[in-house]
Amino acid sequence: MKIVAVVGASGSGKTRLLKELIAELKDRGLRTAVLKHCADGFALEPEGKDTWTFAEAGADAVAMAGPGEWVVRTKARGDAEPDLRTLALGLFAGADVVLVEGGKSERFKKIEVFRDGVSEGLLTAAEDLLAVVSDDAVPGPVSAPVIGPGRTGAICDLILSRGEDIMSEVTLEVDGREVNMNPFVRTIFENTIRGMVASLSGLDPDPETISIVIRKGESREEG
What we know:
With 223 residues, the protein is α/β, with parallel strands linked by helices. The chain is 24% helix and 21% strand.
């Protein structure tokens, strides 16, 4: 799987570029998914409708299912935002390419759409920048290629030239027996544990390995 975010100022043309990339990738026979980052939150249905009512009543997860499709909304623990890369890997395990709309602070490669008069400057750190899509002069030195917005094929070629994004290895053992977890459950485990570790002072907020062992306590009789 290859995960790439499309970022840029509001009105710069992110949505148009994403639509063109989706069409081009599908024409190439690639399984393509999109994850939209909603910084201000979202709702499955407008206020007053059933799923909104169920969520407001306190349901931890709400799903809708219909002919040929289904969608689920799950509440995260605490106020921390989910890790979009981990979420994409868990939700879209069968995808060839996942395009993320937004998520400029996340830890994956980004294509930034720059439009003079709309964008004040580049939002992406140099080490995370895969390409800039613009017809305008981009301010400052840019190490990544600058590609015109009409060159969708070239942008897709660049995305597909990237290495693969691989899901973290998460294992669960109960009394010495390994428990199989599907990608979605593994994602929930990883996001929850990483979120708790990140809240602890004095630790690397993004460690390579986390190990947890829980042994059942035993009561002791006083004699």
